[in-house]
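Appendix C: a fully annotated inverse folding record. The material below is reproduced so that readers can follow the format used throughout the book. The structure is listed first as tokens, followed by the designed sequence.
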């Protein structure tokens, strides 16, 4: 039972690692598509560059017939004009822009003179050229010995969108994983709460019949000659069982809180436990000199105190040691601290000590501190935590409950 949280922790790590692996595979596959598309666009630009070179060479040729020249030029121009997605800049060796295509120019082009650039568009294209000059998206065209042109191009809108797409999907996937993770976590927690509440109520129900029978026997024992002092002590324990059953029956339902003195509740709990623990374990109380008024369900708070004291007893080495219970006021809270000289706990244990089902004992279901935390936090709007603990140095539990004004 104590390993259930280790198993869950390993399960969470496995879930996160699997998610990370799937995300990495998805990104790798998407990036490979981007690389392939980028390679295809470069091939298209190389064809574009070759077509440009051929047009220039054909225009300079005097050997071919005019009809043949016109046919070839039309074919090559068709190749160039087929590019409607990749932004292109063609420059000469001096860096002068000879041609541009597929750029979203900031200034509308004059339909009467489409080849003439405005000052705004010219500055825009020069900025684009400056940014592309340092990239790998350039193809050098040798027109003739000593004569060259340079073709610069940007990634197409499709390629840019596809390169961002994996990361957008990654964010969506991460958000989805987080939502699913916490949804499953909250569902498990809700299911656990239902199990513990059902278990508590069933325990109370099962205890009801034997407790009623024991109460009847307690009335008959004096008539059977059993010592009255013995019967009185037995009667205390039977009534205590009845109180415990009543406490379990209240788990899962909101208890009625009434003004009470926390000092009285703590003292009553400690006095009951003092006569029921080993004589080799000393149990002392150091109560606040003034009352500590709080809104409380006394039976439930007594159960919490008894649970903490029992845990302190169980933590003792060789069943001997000291337990001290103190109360005091701290700003706006009434505070109870239970300190023992037992084995203490590691950080890992402290972290899980209030989790349902977690226990360091060979017996037990690990419900005591879980229910104690529920009683203090949910019902009394307070807090309970391990103030200090270390292996071999004992443990201090602290309870804080808001003081009444």
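Designed amino acids, in order:
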């Amino acid at each position: 039972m104590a390993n259930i949280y280790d198993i869950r922790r390993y399960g969470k790590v496995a879930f996160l690692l699997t998610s990370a692996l799937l995300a990495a595979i998805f990104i790798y596959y998407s990036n490979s598509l981007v690389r392939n598309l980028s390679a295809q666009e470069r091939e298209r630009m190389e064809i574009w560059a070759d077509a440009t070179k051929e047009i220039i060479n054909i225009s300079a040729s005097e050997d071919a017939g005019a009809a043949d020249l016109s046919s070839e030029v039309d074919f090559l121009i068709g190749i160039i004009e087929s590019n409607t997605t990749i932004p292109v800049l063609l420059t000469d060796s001096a860096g002068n822009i000879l041609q541009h295509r597929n750029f979203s120019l900031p200034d509308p082009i004059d339909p009467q003179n489409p080849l003439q650039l405005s000052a705004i568009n010219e500055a825009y294209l020069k900025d684009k050229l400056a940014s592309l000059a340092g990239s790998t998206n350039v193809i050098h065209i040798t027109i003739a010995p000593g004569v060259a042109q340079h073709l610069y191009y940007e990634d197409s809108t499709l390629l840019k969108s596809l390169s961002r797409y994996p990361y957008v999907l990654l964010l969506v996937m991460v958000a989805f994983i987080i939502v699913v993770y916490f949804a499953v976590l909250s569902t498990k927690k809700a299911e656990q709460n239902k199990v513990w509440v059902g278990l508590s109520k069933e325990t109370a129900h099962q205890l009801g019949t034997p407790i009623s029978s024991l109460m009847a026997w307690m009335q008959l024992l004096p008539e059977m000659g059993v010592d009255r002092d013995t019967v009185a002590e037995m009667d205390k324990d039977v009534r205590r069982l009845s109180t415990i059953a009543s406490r379990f029956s209240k788990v899962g339902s909101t208890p009625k809180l009434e003004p009470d003195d926390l000092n009285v509740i703590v003292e009553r709990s400690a006095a009951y436990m003092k006569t029921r623990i080993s004589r080799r374990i000393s149990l002392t109380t150091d109560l606040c000199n003034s009352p500590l008024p709080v809104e409380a369900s006394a039976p439930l708070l007594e159960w919490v105190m008894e649970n903490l004291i029992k845990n302190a007893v169980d933590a003792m080495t060789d069943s001997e040691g000291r337990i001290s219970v103190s109360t005091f006021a701290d700003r706006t809270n009434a505070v109870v601290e239970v300190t023992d000289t037992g084995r203490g706990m590691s950080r890992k244990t402290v972290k899980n000590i209030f989790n349902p089902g977690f226990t360091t004992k060979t017996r037990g279901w690990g419900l005591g501190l879980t229910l104690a935390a529920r009683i203090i936090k949910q019902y009394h709007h307070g807090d309970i935590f391990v103030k200090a603990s270390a292996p071999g140095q004992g443990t201090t539990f602290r309870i804080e409950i808001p003081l009444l004004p």
